[in-house]
Here is the input.
Amino acid sequence: MNTDLESRQSDVYEADYFQWIESTIQKLKHHDYSSVDWKNVIEELEGMARRERQRLRSNLIVLLVHLLKWHHQPNRRSGSWKGSIVEHRQRIEDIIEDSPSLNAYPSAVLEKCYRNAVAQAAAETGLSPETFPQACPYSISEVLDTKFLPE
Here is the structure.
């Protein structure tokens, strides 16, 4: 690919992202592969994959925060905490349903997400981070189980 074409493609990508998307879609639909801005297509696809993993991690952290709060503050349990637990389990299930290859990802990131959840739960509850176990006390199957609530 020549440098002028790459430069023009990059200019469109930087100047009008939506136009770049529409143009790329049309080129792909018409099999005009030589005109596709592959550098930015690859960058966008990598970004999409990162965002899906981040979305899953974010929902897992919120879920863990509410499980910790439920477990460590039984006298403050509320419908909103339980609702959040239900909502974030459903979101994780939906992400995995849409992208089954992410099925093992929650297990892989559980401990890192748990550390983040402990920090957030401590900030939200005023409890010391040392109040919470160092390692996640719940298995990933418990975390994702719609019937599980720590007692």
Summary: The helical segments are 3-15, 17-29, 38-72, 79-98, 105-125, 140-144. Residues 64 and 143 are 7 Å apart (CA to CA). The longest helix spans residues 38-72.
